[in-house]
Amino acid sequence: MNPQLFKITTSRLRIFHEKVKKTEGVIDFTLGDAHENVNEDIKEAAIRSLDHNETHYSESQGLYELRELLCLKEMFYDIQEICITSGATQGLFEVMMTLFEKGDGLLVGIPAYPSYISLCMLFDLDLQTFIFDDEFQISEDFLRAAIKENTKALLINHPHNPSGSVLNQKSIQILHKICKEYDLLLIWDATYFECGSYPTLYHPQLHESIIQIHSFSKSSLMCGFRVGYICAPLNKMKEIVKLHQLIQSCLPVFTQKSALTALHSPFVSYDEQKRYIFRRLIDMGINVVETEGPYYIFFSIKPFHLSSEEFAYRMLEEVQIAVLPGKYFYYEHHIRMSCCIDLEKCKEGCDRLEAFVRKL
């Protein structure tokens, strides 16, 4: 058994969600998996592909025509600088396993998506953390204070999970300045980037230092299709592809054909639900930062003097509302709510949430 695996645990998010699924009458605000189904045109693309017996290998880096279209979207990348992966999860795994050696320092902002921490442990990296400011933006002082001599890269999620924030231009300029000054790689988890119109973290002058990891899961409701892609400068992509070929010869052609269609389809927005939940939380007197990103709201529960886990478990048991504890994102006394559910369920869920907090 690989001893590194003993350093990580089964996802607490998934354990909690298993309990949620067994709770009768629950309104589920936990996972970032929309209640809606994928668009018919995307589904039909997969069916057509199977009807045409496209069940053989594709190019290892992904269908040429898919990467060609992505080159039009990612204007500064050549077709050989793009690799199609099984979602952003595989993309992140391949990037980290390729680019880091044992003991390398990786900077991660807190709150953080839990996989970042687990991957650092798995690959025996020196996890170096900095705290986002009160608006979930980047403080130059906080970031500089976290840098060490062995720091090799900065991993940033933009738009951000769990806070739902979007980095403003000042934060992005700080990122570019720090990465250039300290010669750091910038690994951009862009899972939610296609869910709206947001400022890019890409800068042409930093092309050799930026690695992007994208997904079709959120913007096109293709979570179960498992399609994403990596954008990386050619010298790094050549090494990533070596690993990619070991892990997965290629993605199924029919899911890649669905991704091709998705690039021509509109993204799905849950802004109405997010605005509604935000207004209701404010009316309840709950401290919450209004953020511009998709999917998530992250609110403070400090005045209730409960841990985030106790708050979440009690709410599930007492009013059958499922949310995720901030503890799971390494940020205690906060709660994450996903907004990608039906608006009517949002309203009923907020009614139950209000009844719960009124009793505390």
State the main characteristics.
360 residues, alpha/beta, Aspartate Aminotransferase, domain 1, Aspartate Aminotransferase, domain 2, seven-stranded mixed β-sheet, three-stranded antiparallel β-sheet, 12 helices, globular
CATH first level of the largest domain = Alpha Beta
Helix content: 25-40%
**Rg from alpha-carbon coordinates:** 21 Å
Give average pLDDT, whole number. 93
Number of strands: 12
Instruction: Kindly report the name of the CATH homologous superfamily of the largest domain.
Output: Type I PLP-dependent aspartate aminotransferase-like (Major domain)
Q: How many H/I helical runs?
A: 12
Q: How many angstroms separate the termini?
A: 46 Å
Instruction: Count up the domains.
Output: 2
Shape by Cα distribution = globular
Mind explaining what this structure looks like?
The chain is α/β, with parallel strands linked by helices and 360 residues long. The protein has two domains: 3-36 and 268-359, Aspartate Aminotransferase, domain 1; 56-262, Type I PLP-dependent aspartate aminotransferase-like (Major domain) (Aspartate Aminotransferase, domain 2, 3-Layer(aba) Sandwich), CATH 3.40.640.10. Helices cover 39% and strands 15% of the residues. The chain contains twelve helices and twelve strands. The chain has helices at 12-21, 40-51, 64-73, 87-99, 114-122, 140-146, 169-182, 234-247, 253-262, 271-283, 308-319, 343-359; strands spanning 27-28, 82-85, 105-110, 126-131, 151-157, 185-189, 210-215, 228-231, 296-300, 321-322, 324-325, 334-338. Strands 2-8-7-6-5-3-4 form a seven-stranded mixed β-sheet, with helices on both faces. Strands 9-12-11 form a three-stranded antiparallel β-sheet. Strands 1-10 form a two-stranded parallel sheet. Helix 5 links the parallel strand 3 (105-110) and strand 4 (126-131). Helix 4 packs across helix 8 (234-247). The protein is globular and about 60 Å long. The mean pLDDT is 93.
